[in-house]
Amino acid sequence: MPHFRLAHLSDPHLPPPDLRPGWRDIASKRLLSRIAWRRKRHRHRPEVLAGLVADVRAQAPDHVALTGDLTNFSTPEEFAAARAWLEGIGPTEAVTVSPGNHDALVRSRGDDPFSAWREWLGDDPAEAFPKVRVRGEVALINLCSAVPTALHLAQGRLGEPQVARLAQVLREQGEAGRFRLVLVHHPIAEGAVSGRKALTDATALRAVLAREGAELVLHGHAHEALVTRVAGPTGAIPVLGVPSASAAADGHGEAARWHGLEIARAGDGFEIGVVARGLTPGGGFGELGRYRLRSPARR
Questions:
Q1: Of 173, 187, 203, 277, which residue is least crowded by CB atoms under 10 Å?
Q2: Which range marks the domain in which residue 184 is found?
Q3: Distances in whole angstroms, Cα of residue 260 to Cα of each of 31, 56, 246, 286, 290
Q4: Which string of b and e fits 261-291 if b means at least 16 CB within 10 Å?
């Protein structure tokens, strides 16, 4: 197969269009989040995000994967603003969004909380999560771990129906010989984040991956570059996370970074070249390092 080039970024935390709380916010988690945002907003800089997006465009990937937290308070105004921002990233068929916990900060009043981003979630609007997008020999399998949680929690949950459907999707795409790329906002490796921020049904997800296999999992949420692994049926599955795409280099966590992935078939499996690009000491974006991963061999 020819190389498939994918850009992975996450957690842009786009600036909210209006910081004034509405009356519904007073009795919801949004009020606490707005207070926290006033304290932390200097860590997420629009000029940093603009520089990262420009760097992604300059590399001209085949596809962009964005693993959540486009918004901060999941307000309708933020969803509309995020939609406008997504339209500037690239064609809808070349960009996939996996929602994050901030995108589901409070319970939606409608049946489809992410309807504003429908075109970026998957190719079939009627398809439930996980949504599948096949691009050549790569199957992007988009999970949704975004659910409302109690105050002071940033946990995620997939739910039994989604986990059960994932098993079927992984089996079908594996039988088709495709590279199975799983997208999810929350880290899935045990101990990657604290319990307050964890995926509550990660054990069930890991059991499915151990049984059915996958070639790569991408996530965000931790706001740091993570390289972990989870068990697969024939070997360990690599799991990669990236820092926030808008994070300033101010000493509070890792500065903005994105990963360029080059996927190619290699013998009985696939090889993945990873190039980390992010803020450099000079303030611009450049290469930070590169390495190669090997996906588990097929059964």
A1: 203
A2: 4-17+41-294
A3: 36, 8, 17, 12, 9
A4: bbbebeeebbebebbbbbbeeeeebeeeeee
pLDDT of residue 268: 83
Residue 157, SS3 per DSSP? coil
Looking up residue 229, the CATH number of its domain turns out to be: 3.60.21.10
Closest among 223, 216, 225, 237 to 276, alpha carbons compared: 225
Alpha helices per DSSP H over 190-230: 202-212
Residue recorded with tokens 């588990």: 296
DSSP classification of residue 126: T
Closest CA to 12 of 77, 65, 91: 65
Q: In what order do the strands lie in the sheet with 226-231?
A: 131-135, 138-142, 179-183, 216-219, 236-241, 226-231
Residue 146 lies in a domain: yes
What DSSP state is assigned to residue 102?
G
Number of separate domains in the chain: 1
Residue 204 domain-assigned (yes or no): yes
57 class by beta-carbon count within 10 Å (0-12 exposed, 13-18 middle, 19+ buried): middle
Say how many residues make up the chain: 299
Among the ranges given (31-45, 71-85, 144-158, 199-213), the one the predictor scored with the smallest mean pLDDT = 31-45
Q: Is 157 exposed, middle or buried (0-12, 13-18, 19+ CB in 10 A)?
A: buried
Q: Is residue 263 included in any domain, yes or no?
A: yes
